[in-house]
TrEMBL record:
DNA-binding region: 34-53
Record's protein name: TetR/AcrR family transcriptional regulator
Pfam families noted in UniProt: TetR_C_43, TetR_N
PANTHER family found in the cross-reference section: HTH-TYPE TRANSCRIPTIONAL REGULATOR BETI, HTH-TYPE TRANSCRIPTIONAL REGULATOR RUTR
Keywords: DNA-binding, Transcription, Transcription regulation
Residues of the HTH tetR-type domain: 12-71
Origin superkingdom: Bacteria
């Protein structure tokens, strides 16, 4: 297999410009925006986009790796939080806020058109692992019901994000997070 040569300065600039435009465009409009529109907005040809990102999925995967790296880092930091419940719910809030601000990320979280988890894993980021650890800590502390699974948490997050599909509504997000928090609280024995 031939060695990859480093990109020329102009090719690095074009790649960075395409990636920045794609991040902004997918965040604002979702993943349905065609690649030729990304190229137009970046001021390059579709061939330039294709040289760096052979498919739309490859472009989105590059975005996911960049964004999810930060999110996973934030989640790992929350594992060190002294209060396991606050660490878990802080991560839930972070994910809900990110999903509300970024339509493409919200679609990825919901599994619409792109397997965000697989892309993150290929980049070395284990989002599910962070969720699993945060959830287990909160459950051991008695702050979250013991019968809750990571898939349940993701479904609840998708519901919170879906609530803001037509645009950010911080008051609605807070209400949804409060409902989720209440619903995940262990029930008192009868």
């Amino acid at each position: 297999m031939p060695e990859e040569r480093p990109l020329r300065a102009d090719a690095r600039r074009n790649r960075a410009r395409v990636l920045a435009v794609a991040i902004d465009t997918f965040a604002a409009e979702g993943m349905s925006v065609p690649v030729h529109e990304i190229a137009r907005r970046a001021g390059v040809g579709t061939g330039t986009v294709s040289r760096h990102f052979p498919t739309k999925e490859a472009l989105y995967e590059a975005i996911v790796r960049e964004r999810v790296g930060q999110i996973v880092g934030d989640g790992r930091a929350l594992l060190e939080h002294g209060d396991p419940a606050e660490g878990f719910f802080a991560f839930f809030r972070l994910m809900a806020e990110q999903g509300a601000a970024d339509r493409g990320l919200a679609e990825g979280l919901a599994g619409v058109g792109f397997d965000m988890e697989a892309a993150a894993a290929r980049g070395g980021y284990d989002v599910t692992g962070v969720w699993r650890e945060l959830l287990a800590r909160a459950q051991r502390a008695g702050a979250v019901r013991g019968d809750v699974e990571v898939a349940d948490v993701k479904a609840l997050l998708s519901g919170c994000v879906a609530r803001e599909r037509s645009g950010p509504e911080p008051a609605a997000r807070e209400r949804m997070i409060a409902i989720v928090r209440g619903g995940l609280r262990p029930t008192a024995p009868a």
